[in-house]
Design a protein that fits this description.
alpha+beta; 3 domains; disordered N terminus; FAD; FAD-linked_Oxidoreductase
């Protein structure tokens, strides 16, 4: 035990996160070495620099926000945090439901300056870890390409891809992580590694669905993209009392549909809706929808179909304000959790009753199958390859909604009230800090292999956080992006 360690454990040196630690001179030396800005409490710009997408975490007080301008800044931030035993949060889009994109008393590494998007002549895309889905889709569309991903403009690519990446084209093309060819990552030893199937394949495997923040801070990606033409879209709204009939019919209809058809349901006490995309002739899509309506036995009260360019089609699935400049500024208060539908529910009415008994809960059902299911369960960390669908449960977290604690209570009743068809399952990109047996729910049979990779690249637990795979370390936390 060296002198500094002895003094720390004996109480003679302040522990991380307390006022006055690290000393001001250490912060100033870090500031002088960074290419990007360092925001400390009291600095101009700090109040805005510390904010994430969700307003529930506005009371968090990071010791600093590092506006990383280059990979060396990320290395400096990680080294500083490790040296001073400070918690760290890597922030891309900042959409982490548990607020892991920020941290009290620690360092937030803001990756927003890593926002470059380059489309190469061969169709590959080199994308910075701070880029968001809206600009990515716009840039790729201009080149006639698309990266299968989510539809919310303000979600960051890093968190999405590192957790798997579900979206509206997945049944045809697979998950976002299935298109990842290489990633650049700063690991706990301060090294910058470019990993791929040929270079450090175990770490590359772990990054394709192993969750954000578990193995280091990723600063850039190389993805394969696919050419895209116009997309047929649909939006059906049924009477609210058709919820059970819609769910029952859908769970038989969607798995039998061609890969070109993706759909998502919205279920709530006053909602029974279905929207989706079809990568083929509109006439064929209409035939498929007529078949579903026959199975439901109730005519929709609204039925809209269109053929749109891909970019316009994606924006129809973004619930947030997508007007120019609005999405970047808008922030919200809500949270969520999830389950996976692993087989058709034996009692659809019982499932729908659980989903809709609380008027504050809305359920989004995203279809699986197709190309997702043709990748082996162990080929990537994403274990739910055979699931029929993912279910995301949402609840407002404003004071009028009962706040964050009230939202989590309501969501837990839904999450834990579903039957054996759903099991111990969940989607890691919808992190829930109260998810029972979370490692098994999110990673299934891949959890132990992921832990082994984390131990190899982070043996001291520099990147540990409450739902992380690194070795436990009470004073250090790196969260999702």
């Amino acid at each position: 035990m060296d002198r500094r360690t002895f003094l720390r454990v004996s109480g003679a040196v302040p522990v991380a996160g307390l006022a006055g630690w690290p000393p001001p001179d250490d912060w100033e030396r870090l500031r002088a070495r960074l290419a990007g800005p360092l925001f400390r409490p009291g600095d101009p710009g700090y109040a805005d620099a510390k904010l994430v997408f969700f307003t529930m975490y506005d009371d968090r007080v990071p010791a600093a926000v590092v506006g990383a301008a280059c990979v060396e800044d990320v290395q400096l931030a990680v080294a500083f945090a490790a040296r001073h035993r400070l918690p760290v949060a890597a922030r891309g889009g900042g959409h982490s439901y548990p607020g892991y994109s920020t941290v009290d008393g620690g360092i937030v590494v803001d990756l927003s300056r890593f926002s470059g998007i380059e489309v190469r002549p061969d169709g590959r895309a080199v994308i910075g870890a701070g880029a968001k889905l809206g600009p990515i889709a716009t840039t790729l569309a201009a080149a006639g390409r698309v990266l299968p991903a989510g539809s919310c403009d303000t979600v960051g690519i890093a968190g999405l891809a590192l957790g798997g990446g579900v979206g509206v084209l997945d049944r045809k093309y697979g998950l976002t992580c299935d298109h990842l060819e290489a990633a650049r990552i700063v690991t706990a030893d301060g090294r910058v590694r470019t990993v791929s199937a040929a270079a450090e394949p175990d770490l590359f495997w772990a990054l394709r669905g192993g969750g954000g923040g578990n193995f280091g801070i990723v600063t850039g990606f190389t993805f394969r993209t696919v050419p895209i033409a116009d997309v047929a879209t649909f939006d059906l709204k049924f009477p609210a009392d058709a919820r059970t009939a819609l769910f029952a019919a859908w769970q038989e209809w969607q798995p039998a549909a061609p890969d070109e058809l993706w759909s998502g349901m919205g279920l709530a006490w006053n909602e029974a809706s279905l929207g989706g995309t079809f990568l083929g002739p509109r006439a064929r899509m209409h035939e498929l929808l007529e078949d579903l309506v026959r199975r439901v036995g109730t005519q929709p009260v609204e039925w809209h179909e269109a053929v749109q360019d891909h970019l316009t089609a994606m924006r129809t699935f973004d619930d947030h304000d997508s007007r120019p400049g609005a999405a970047a500024a808008a922030r919200y208060a809500y949270t969520g959790t999830s389950r996976m539908l692993t087989r058709p529910a034996e009692d659809p009415a019982a499932v729908v009753e659980v989903l809709t008994r609380d008027p504050g809960v809305r359920t989004i059902v995203d279809s699986g199958g197709g190309a997702i299911a043709r990748v082996g369960v162990r080929e990537t960390p994403f274990p739910h390859r055979k699931a029929l669908a993912s279910l995301q449960f949402l609840h407002g977290a404003e004071p009028a909604d009962g706040g964050l604690a009230g939202a989590r209570r309501s969501l837990a009743a839904v999450r834990d009230g579903l039957g054996p068809e759903f099991g111990t399952t969940g989607y890691v990109n919808y992190l829930d800090p109260e998810m029972p047996d979370w490692a098994h729910a999110y990673y299934g049979v891949n959890a132990e292999r992921l832990r082994a990779v984390a131990r190899k690249y982070d043996p001291r637990g520099i990147f540990a956080f409450p739902q992380g795979l690194s070795a436990a370390r009470s004073t250090v936390h790196i969260g999702g992006t």
